[in-house]
Automatic annotation (TrEMBL):
One of its GO terms (cellular component) is plasma membrane. It catalyses: NAD(+) + NADPH + H(+)(in) = NADH + NADP(+) + H(+)(out). The keyword Transmembrane applies. It is an enzyme of class 7 (translocase). The chain crosses the membrane at residues 6-23, 35-52, 58-76, 88-107, 119-142, 163-180, 186-206, 213-232, 238-257. PANTHER family: NAD(P) TRANSHYDROGENASE SUBUNIT BETA. It comes from Actinokineospora globicatena. The gene is pntB. Belongs to the PNT beta subunit family. It is a multi-pass membrane protein. The transhydrogenation between NADH and NADP is coupled to respiration and ATP hydrolysis and functions as a proton pump across the membrane. Residues 8-458 form the NADP transhydrogenase beta-like domain. This is NAD(P) transhydrogenase subunit beta. GO terms for molecular function: NADP binding; proton-translocating NAD(P)+ transhydrogenase activity.
Length: 463
């Protein structure tokens, strides 16, 4: 059997593992196995690629693998679940940056794609532009999520979109000159720099409320740039893996945008959502919130027929998922039905709440998506909201002047009683007050979510 046949067979095995692994990511119970299967597929693809004749300097390849392993494995093991969105943004950006650098190397090695087929030059330059946008945009997204830079929209007003258009045209102009025969290094550097600034200027004006969609969109862009680079290099693994990432990221981005009732162009246009702000724990204007205690909350839930827990980023920050599971199990032992209402954009990345609750071994069948759980709130005795702000705000249905108007929300306000666990009255990522907090049937249990849930659990044990 020839080497070429062996390589193609290995690629086929790798693609099968990619697809089978992706199928496993549809549920928490199979997600870990799916990740391992997909990782095995990537390992097979790497071996197939290294078998390609004329692959290059093996020592440099091994050095790169060693450095990547030394940085990636400890980072993945040490990252906290609250920081997972940042890590996803960062690792995604690294992929886009790698593709952009490969395109630059190809430009240098081929002296401006001299003698290369047109599709190779076009695909390489497309990869350079999109990869650079993805890398720098992901760094900004990381900075916003990590709070290194403000989560609020940062832009230049009406000049923002014209500037973005100028940067895009500058990148395309450099690409056109290169395709036309230009081989000056300044052309490819200018292309990468203009694309980099464009990536920064596109993400900076986007507020924290839209970060889950932005992460998904940048992930899709990285996949597309990798697929285009695979086309330029005639590397089947890159093409297939890139298309899988690009297609799945695009579908997810569209689903997330629909969940917020916002178009993707509107999100990219920016200006929505902030990083939250300060507030009072007593009142906003002439509206007063009603406090409750752990003992009162425990009594309400202990004698309820059905309780729905609504997790949000506040649960992630407090690392309260294990305490929540313990409380839920105690309620279920008393005959109370407990479910978890999952909003598609709760948290800071797609599936953030699912990941946290799966880590705490919460039964998957207890996790209910918005479409399934919304009909249950009207017959729910107690809804406990743990740091979920914008996705429970009734203003999305009633206030046409609200920036979140029209966004599908969890119908928490239809419950007979609502208990909100929060540190204070600061608004969510959208930067608007939550009308739910001032509803007469809503009570606030202020403090760290993990500590508050633990107190409620102790009170339940004492009943």
């Amino acid at each position: 059997m020839s080497r070429d046949v062996v390589i193609q067979l290995l690629y086929i095995v790798a693609f099968a593992l990619f697809i089978y692994g992706l199928m496993g990511l549809t549920g928490p119970r199979t997600a870990v196995r799916g990740n391992w299967i997909a990782a095995a597929g990537m390992g097979v693809a790497v071996v197939a690629t290294l078998l390609t004749p004329g692959m290059g300097n093996w020592w440099l390849i091994l050095l790169g693998v060693a450095i990547g392993t030394a940085v990636g494995v400890p980072s993945a093991k040490q990252v906290k679940m609250t920081a997972m969105p940042q890590m996803v943004a960062l690792f995604n950006g690294v992929g886009g940056g790698a593709v952009a650098l490969i395109a630059w190397v190809e430009f240098r090695e081929s002296h401006g794609f001299d003698g290369s087929p047109a599709h190779v030059a076009v695909a390489s330059l497309f990869s350079a532009i999109v990869g650079s946008i993805s890398f720098w945009g992901s760094l900004v997204a990381y900075g916003k999520l990590q709070e290194v830079i403000t989560g609020r929209p940062v832009g230049i007003g009406k000049l923002q979109q014209p500037l973005n258009l100028v940067l895009l045209l500058a990148s395309l102009a450099c690409a056109a000159v290169i395709i036309g025969g230009g081989d000056a290094q300044l052309l490819i550097i200018g292309l990468l720099v203009a694309s980099a600034v464009l990536g920064v200027m596109v993400v900076l004006p986007i507020g924290g409320a839209d970060m889950p969609v932005v992460i998904s969109l940048l992930n899709a862009l990285t996949g597309l740039s990798a697929a285009a680079m695979g086309l330029a290099l005639d590397n089947t693994a890159l093409i297939v893996a890139g298309m899988i990432v690009g297609a799945s990221g695009t579908i997810l981005t569209n689903l997330m945008a629909k969940a917020m009732n916002r178009s993707i162009p509107a999100i990219v246009a920016g200006g929505f959502g902030g990083g939250g702000g300060g507030g009072t724990t007593q009142a906003t204007g002439d509206q007063t919130v009603r406090r409750t205690s752990a003992s009162d909350a425990a009594i309400q839930m202990a004698f309820a027929n059905q309780v729905i827990i609504v997790p949000g980023y506040g649960m992630a920050v407090a690392q309260a998922q294990h305490a929540v599971r313990e409380m839920a199990e105690l309620l279920e032992s008393r005959g109370v039905s407990v479910y978890y209402a999952i909003h598609p954009v709760a948290g800071r990345m797609p599936g953030h709440m699912n990941v946290l609750l799966a880590e705490a071994d919460v039964p998957y069948e207890r996790l209910k998506e918005m479409e399934d759980i919304n009909r249950e709130f009207a017959r729910t005795d107690v809804a406990m909201v743990i740091g979920a702000n914008d996705v429970t705000n009734p203003a999305a249905r009633t206030d046409q002047d609200s920036p979140i108007y029209g966004m599908p929300i969890l119908n928490v306000d239809e419950s007979r009683s609502v208990i909100v666990l929060k540190r204070g009255m600061a608004p969510g990522f959208a930067g608007v007050d939550n009308a739910l907090y001032f509803d007469p049937k809503t009570t606030m249990l202020f403090g760290d979510a993990k500590a508050s849930v633990a107190e409620v659990t102790e009170e339940l044990k004492a009943l």
